[in-house]
Amino acid sequence: MKIAIQGIKGSYHHIVAENYFGANNEMDECMTFAEMPDKVVSDKVDVAVMAIENSIAGAILPNYALIDEAEVNVVGEYYLPIHHNLMALKGQDISEIKKVYSHPMALLQCRKFFRQYPHIQLIEDVDTADVAKRIDEQQLKGVGAIASSLAAEIYKLNILASEIQTVKDNHTRFVIVEKKGKDLIEFPTKASIKFVLKDESGSLGEVLMELANHKVNLSKIQSLPIIDKPWEYAFFADLVFTDYIEYKNALKDIKSKVSSCKVLGEYKKN
Questions:
Q1: Catalytic residue check, 114
Q2: 33 classed as catalytic
């Protein structure tokens, strides 16, 4: 398979791709999320792995919109425990590190650790593993990266401090997306949907009531502004169920209470 990932080898997306699909696949390295759904639609890749939310930082809202706009299909999910490590060239000590580069999300999740090292400047970069690769290729002294232990292994860096994330129970949820029209998942137990409410009082409450009536659990709901309709919002929701027929009946009843409803994907709960 050819799999689109955000970042390069050694990134957390790379780890998820290998854990989910196995090691013997080709990785298509993307520096932005925006290019990933387009590659799926144009058949440049078979699937894409996209981060969608983090247990600390919350939802990655733009990625919901990218999946919706590209008309790709969510076919799976994967929760990855995030273990951040500070790494640098071999032979370097943490007292010699002046600058640390990493993805903004990684920096945010490790700020407390760096309070004890006020001499270190934290600088945002596009990808965790890309910084590790750059340090290795350019032999950058006094520069550190926050990345996975796999990145340290691939790019031959020394881990100066491990598990530096503030909250140790830190997970990121990734979704697997592919082009619409492929085989449906057998016996799905989870679905991602998008709906837009009617401009009526209590309409969201009616949607939630229908889910409860059909024993469908709402595991997540997130609102996102509709760009061309000021002060109107679309809702992205994840539904968990054990009875597929009850879920389909819930969808049918919901559609009578909203102005639009779209299924983004049905898949097995991870």
A1: no
A2: no
